[in-house]
């Protein structure tokens, strides 16, 4: 598959998607987002891939949805085409584990795309923000919803209403990112984390992800019930037998279902 706006690579069992529109700081136009969806489809279908890393450049993960592409849009066209939904949520609906590796700007749709991944590893150069209010709109790809769940109401309101950026340290402090690493090490660290995830049983990792995500969609009692059902089902897998037997035998587990 020949892509124009992203680069796709693999390292072992890790699929790497690199946003690649340097002339526009990786602004997310519809062509890029369509390609991203195709790349996610391809990695999801590939049995050799156990986890996906999404990254950008040293200067920008992505500086948002493409403002020049959006500029001329009007209502009800935006409503009719369900603007921003088309293909944007493909990354969020990935069933394999996904990690965003963010350096530089992750603004507007860029921050929203990072939040569609399961977790975010940030370079110490990362800057996050939802500056849509400065353009006369508000976040339209999950920013008001996912950011609020990540960082709580006060910080989400602060970012969405003032449009200010926060640095990597603040992003880690408030729970938006799971860890901050030196910019030069970002991709290596993200791929290392993804390789770790991909070394485990894939169905177990997928169910774990599904269960964590369920916490954002349901009540505590229903979430616990959901978790318990998946937990019980895991005892029907060879990988549970292998994982626990390997522990008892003091050896490294060799999971079958990758
Ligand atoms: N859309 C389209 N083009 C963009 C872009 C965007 N979101 N962000 C940057 N670019 C383009 C610039 O227009 C510029 O192109 P030209 O060289 O052709 O003029 C090029 O990328 C480099 O950008 P700058 O010269 O502005 O670079 P800078 O280093 O001076 O500033 C920046 C960097 C602070 C990130 C600045 O580019 C900026 O503020 N970008 C817009 C950020 C933004 O508002 N994002 C939200 C978009 S709306 C959205 O995302 C909606 C949603 O919820 C889905």
UniProtKB/TrEMBL annotation:
<comment type="function">
    <text>Could possibly oxidize fatty acids using specific components.</text>
</comment>
<dbReference type="InterPro" id="IPR014748">
    <property type="entry name" value="Enoyl-CoA_hydra_C"/>
</dbReference>
<dbReference type="InterPro" id="IPR029045">
    <property type="entry name" value="ClpP/crotonase-like_dom_sf"/>
</dbReference>
<keyword id="KW-0276">Fatty acid metabolism</keyword>
<dbReference type="GO" id="GO:0004300">
    <property type="term" value="F:enoyl-CoA hydratase activity"/>
</dbReference>
<dbReference type="InterPro" id="IPR018376">
    <property type="entry name" value="Enoyl-CoA_hyd/isom_CS"/>
</dbReference>
<comment type="similarity">
    <text>Belongs to the enoyl-CoA hydratase/isomerase family.</text>
</comment>
<keyword id="KW-0443">Lipid metabolism</keyword>
<keyword id="KW-0456">Lyase</keyword>
<dbReference type="InterPro" id="IPR001753">
    <property type="entry name" value="Enoyl-CoA_hydra/iso"/>
</dbReference>
<dbReference type="Pfam" id="PF00378">
    <property type="entry name" value="ECH_1"/>
</dbReference>
<protein>
    <recommendedName>
        <fullName>enoyl-CoA hydratase</fullName>
        <ecNumber>4.2.1.17</ecNumber>
    </recommendedName>
</protein>
<dbReference type="GO" id="GO:0006635">
    <property type="term" value="P:fatty acid beta-oxidation"/>
</dbReference>
């Amino acid at each position: 598959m020949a892509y124009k706006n992203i680069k796709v690579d693999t390292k072992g069992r890790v699929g790497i998607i690199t946003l690649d529109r340097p002339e526009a700081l990786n602004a997310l136009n519809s062509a890029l987002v369509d390609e991203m969806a195709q790349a996610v489809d391809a990695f999801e279908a590939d049995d050799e891939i156990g986890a996906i890393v999404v990254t950008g450049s040293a200067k920008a993960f992505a500086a948002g949805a493409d403002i020049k592409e959006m500029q001329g849009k009007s209502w009800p066209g935006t409503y009719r085409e369900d603007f921003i939904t088309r293909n944007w949520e493909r990354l969020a609906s990935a069933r394999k584990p996904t990690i965003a590796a963010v350096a530089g700007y992750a603004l507007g749709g860029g921050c929203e795309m990072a939040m569609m991944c399961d977790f975010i590893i940030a370079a110490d150069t990362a800057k996050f923000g939802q500056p849509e209010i400065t353009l006369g709109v508000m976040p339209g790809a999950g920013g008001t919803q996912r950011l609020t769940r990540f960082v709580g109401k006060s910080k989400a309101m602060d970012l969405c209403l003032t449009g200010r950026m926060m640095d990597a340290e603040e992003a880690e402090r408030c729970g938006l990112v799971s860890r901050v690493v030196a910019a030069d090490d970002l991709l290596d660290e993200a791929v290392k984390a993804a390789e770790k995830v991909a070394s485990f049983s894939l169905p177990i990792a997928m169910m774990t992800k599904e269960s964590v995500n369920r916490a954002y969609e349901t009540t505590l009692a229903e979430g616990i019930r959901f978790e318990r059902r998946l937990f019980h089902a895991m005892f029907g897998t060879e990988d549970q037998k292998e994982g626990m037997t390997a522990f008892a035998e003091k050896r490294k587990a060799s999971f079958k279902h990758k």
